[in-house]
Amino acid sequence: MTQELTRRLAAAADDMPAARVPSDLFRRGRRRHRLQMSTFAIFAIVLAFAASIALSGVDGAVVPASGTSTVPGRLHEPWPWQASVAGSPRGPAALLVSGGGGYQAMDLPFTYGSRISAIGRDGSYRVLPFGTTYLQAGQDVLLSPDGRYAAGNGTYERLLGTGDTDVSIVDLTTGEERRHQGSGPAVPVAWSHDGRRLLVHRFGASSWSDTPFDGADTTGSDNGALWLLDVGSGAATHLLDLGRTRRGAAAFSPDGRTVAVQLGRELALLDSATGTRRPLATLPAGAHLGGPWSYTADGTGLGVLTIADGCTTGCSNAARNARSWRLTVLSTTTGTELPTTFPTFGGATARLAGWQRDGTAVLVRYTDETNGGEPSDDPPAAYRAVSDADLLALTPGGTTKSLLTKPKGVIWDVDVATDLVTAGAFGGPSPAPSVFPLARWAATTVFVALWALAMLTWLTITLRRRTRRRPPLRPAAHPGAR
Predict the structure, then answer these.
(1) Could you tell me if 69 and 87 lie in one domain?
(2) Higher per-residue confidence, 335 vs 241
(3) Are residues 457 and 345 in the same domain?
(4) pLDDT, tens digit, for every residue of 88-142?
(5) Domain that holds residue 52
(6) Distance between CA 25 and CA 98 in Å, rounded?
(7) What InterPro entries does the annotation carry (predicted)?
(8) How many structural domains comprise the chain?
(9) Does residue 370 fall inside a structural domain?
């Protein structure tokens, strides 16, 4: 039985056609393997190249041919994925900018509350993300006189645990941060001209009801105090209890020995070493100290902004925009008005950004959103009120000049490095923001997306080659066929 079964199976095997095995089977398999590996290698190279660009500091910034630093003549909107200062520092900045469009922080869960852009002296654009919401450049985040440091409220580059009791000082050259903690919410008020000290206003219970840069609104915060912070050592010295007063109404003298401060309508001078207070002048209704850079370049005068015409109390945004302002200079010795005449200008409010050596005043003029005729609940220079901000130069002879070309309705505040203001270094090269390098979150997203694409492509090629239909092969001739 067994022998018969073996014979029949052998006969059946002889009658079956030969297996369709191509003569180049081994060569085909080796070629397919090489193709798969080559495809994967190409995608890996592309992925590594894209990641290296995204994470590198290479961008399209240019250094002015003269080798001198200048404020760019034009501002552009940064990319949503613009690299941060921490991830790719570019050195001292010419400007800090806040606003809408590309300057606005993403209002999504686990995203930062404020997005301040640092415009480098080489034309680069970098981002300073802060945990505290609604911060304005020049008010809540201040650029040091040499453009190297940015001081802000709240924790920098952290998503969780962002407290408004911290004052964060970021080195724009290294990307490193130093935090200074205290009791009660705090904001930086003014840098000393040598960049070694910082005035800080710490608030009491009603911490954010202050009204910056508007002489008409003077209610202010309760139980506030002005502190003097030594940036190098971190030591803080109590300078003055402010009580109910305006935020932002303080300025260092050029030699650092005196601090000018506005207390209601009183303008006083403080000895920065002892805190000794000397009344200087009583400001008229609708007037306010020009801001952190109110002292003239030679230290002999203080700039004061006064509403010359228009609404002073209970104003709507439209009524604020219709105001006319006058800049005067008060003697730091007598408190009387010096015989310097500047042109009037319109706007919701304004603050001084500094003085040029020839006596030209540089200021930021704010325009508010016009949302009906009801009185506004927000201060005129606040994040939620401003619709536009312009950088202007007022000459003692009576001319007004715009110093920045910018997207309309996008720039809500700007801070300028004081050394460039003093030198009158405006109108420099204005390269557009470069796409690269990417912010860390964007670079991670690109890396993961490219890796997933590479793997998906490799798997697709592999499966298609395994399942595609091969052309039929001619069977081998049977030994008994003719």
Answers:
(1) yes
(2) 335
(3) no
(4) 999 999 999 999 988 988 655 556 688 999 999 999 999 998 888 889 999 999 9
(5) 38-56+444-465
(6) 66
(7) 6-blade_b-propeller_TolB-like (IPR011042)
(8) 2
(9) yes
| Burial readout 175-207 (b: 16 or more C-beta within 10 A, e: otherwise) | bebebbeeebbbbbbbbbbebebbbbbbbbeeb
Query: How is residue 86 written in tokens?
Result: 């921490």
Instruction: Using alpha carbons, select from 417, 415, 455 the residue that is nearest to residue 141.
Output: 415
Strands of 186-191's sheet in order across: 186-191, 197-202, 221-230, 236-245
45 and 135 belong to one structural domain: no
43 and 65 share a domain? Answer: no
Indicate if 52 and 143 belong to the same structural domain. Answer: no
Domain presence at residue 14: no
First to last CA, the chain: 33
Q: Is residue 152 located within the same domain as residue 83? A: yes
pLDDT range class, residue 375, cuts 50, 70, 90: confident
pLDDT band, residue 337 (cuts 50/70/90): very high
Of 391, 423, 455, the last residue of a domain is 423
Q: 237 and 274 share a domain?
A: yes
Q: What is the pLDDT of the chain when averaged over all its residues?
A: 82
433, part of any domain: no
- Domain membership flag for residue 461: yes
Q: Is the pTM of this model over 0.70?
A: yes
Of residues 128, 66, 51, the one with CA closest to residue 93: 128
